[in-house]
């Protein structure tokens, strides 16, 4: 499985020959200025919640690529009003079998509104599972006991968790999350983009390593194999 980091909480995954893109926020991220949104591939776009730093580039990428957009009911309706043709709404606890695998929409503890301040439904995360890999993207979230439910249904190969603190859990709590979801390999996101969420990356890696876990922090634009 190929994983490409585009900054903030935006990343792409190639699985079952499909290109999945999560929470597209690139054009508004100064740290991602070398990424050309016109060249970012997507067969499917998954959106965790409605904040600008997760949806800014969804519409133009979806229109350019024709990607299927998967999110909650409210976000899918919002996308349709902006001319996105292909959407699939989910709600918390629900799942659907797509051609690239099963997607389950799970709880996140955060807030969610559209760029104009209107209601964007409740925030969530995703578990994506197929016969190649199974992974969890928590979306923006606090540490929550609901994470303990995930390993009851899925054996994770890796997970993507926010580690920047202030607006989400920090890396110390992300380690507790890794323990709850029973996943040793974590990719950290949602850090360094703004002053509020700048972190000491060496300290974060060391914190995980000391506990016997691996924290991966790929550079923006970097692709790694998992």
TrEMBL record:
Residues 7-190 form the Metallo-beta-lactamase domain. Pfam families: Lactamase_B_2 (PF12706). Keywords: Hydrolase. GO terms for molecular function: hydrolase activity. The keyword Hydrolase applies. InterPro entries: Metallo-B-lactamas (IPR001279), RibonucZ/Hydroxyglut_hydro (IPR036866), UPF0173 (IPR022877), UPF0173_UPF0282_UlaG_hydrolase (IPR050114). SUPFAM superfamilies: Metallo-hydrolase/oxidoreductase. Belongs to the UPF0173 family. This is UPF0173 metal-dependent hydrolase GCM10023143_22430.
